[in-house]
Amino acid sequence: MRILFISGALFGHVNPMLPLALAARTAGHEVIFATGPEFVPSLERRGLSCWAVGLTHAQAGGSRQDSWLAYFEATAGRRAADLLPRATAWHPDVVIHEETELAGPTVAAATGARHVVHGLGGMPPKRIWPAFAQAIERIGERWGHPEVAGTLSDATYLHLCPPALERRGEAPIWRRVQPLRPGPGLSIPGDRLPESLDTLPARLTIHLTLGTVYNGNVDVLRRAIEGLRELKANIIVTVGQDADPAVLGLQPAHVRVERYVPHALLLPRCGLVVSQGGSGTLLGALCHGLTHLMLPQGADQFLNAEAAVASGAALALTGEDVTAEAIRDSVRRLLDEPGFAVAARRVQAEIAAMPSAAQVLEQIVDRR
Fold first, then answer.
1. Bridge-partner residues for 158, per DSSP?
2. Does this model's pTM top 0.85?
3. What's the rounded Cα separation, in Å, for the pair 296 and 57?
4. Share of the chain above pLDDT 70, in %
5. When comparing pLDDT for 124 and 310, which is higher?
6. What pLDDT sits at residue 105?
7. How far is Cα 148 from Cα 103, in angstroms, rounded to an integer?
8. How far is Cα of residue 268 from the mean position of the Cα atoms in its chain?
9. Which of 177, 153, 212, 186 has the alpha carbon at shortest distance from 9?
10. Residue ranges of domains in the chain, CATH in brackets
11. Which residues lie below 8 Å from residue 297, measured CB to CB, with a gap of 6+?
């Protein structure tokens, strides 16, 4: 079959789709991954065929957006202009797009392909969906498919969320929901950990990150480092590939500040994660049974923090509570109180029991 994957130009949106795309390629299907130009080199290093479509994230204004919905709509409009001629000429059998890729429904409608929506973590709350549906409708109308928003709920939704993190009490947006096991992150051929990590002195390692969108909140990173460096632990901090580690100043020997460290290689060495609580970071840590201190900064991170705390595997700090002392004390609780680790391992077991990418791919292909 011909399977077209489409994602916005954000790490947290491309990466969750990779296990399924790679499974499709391994199974012998024709696979195209369409996303922002800056992601094409790394995807091609994984052996995927790619289309560079739309703007780069930087060209679209970067991570400081007044409205993320406006960003998703504007960037999807540019991707649609690039995608539709190529997709209609290629004739995919299946279109799989991530949940905020608002051009995906129009591409599926224009090509007559089966429509699959790839989740990123917890399913979006229903209260925000009318605004997304209106944006999808505007894109569809522009390309002669005004019906796409109304048919979106008929698509299959691939749900990455383990039961312990489910948000209770509201009906799902999609009627056909297929669980899909989230991955712990995939390294690219040639990825290595910095050699300096082998010389770190402590037995326990803590990873501190604010992800790839909110990593410019340097003051939060400084406060976190101030609290964490008092612990008997190695602290590995990542600030983002476009940031300068020197912005955080000189650090003691047990604190390392790096631009980027692949989670697939780093997380198996860690005992705890402190992060903004993006879905990819949260689920990647839980794939390894790691407890989590969450410092949500925006987007879905506050909802993720609420769900993770309710699961018993995490603590969260927000607003004025994000102080060096509170971060230190919260991490000590996570390390000293065994209930957190028990809960994290319980979620890890739930994730392991979810259908794999290869299993879900078989169901998608067989549903003819």
1. 118, 178
2. yes
3. 21
4. 99
5. 310
6. 96
7. 10
8. 18
9. 212
10. 2-180 (3.40.50.2000), 195-352 (3.40.50.2000)
11. 210, 214, 217, 220, 276
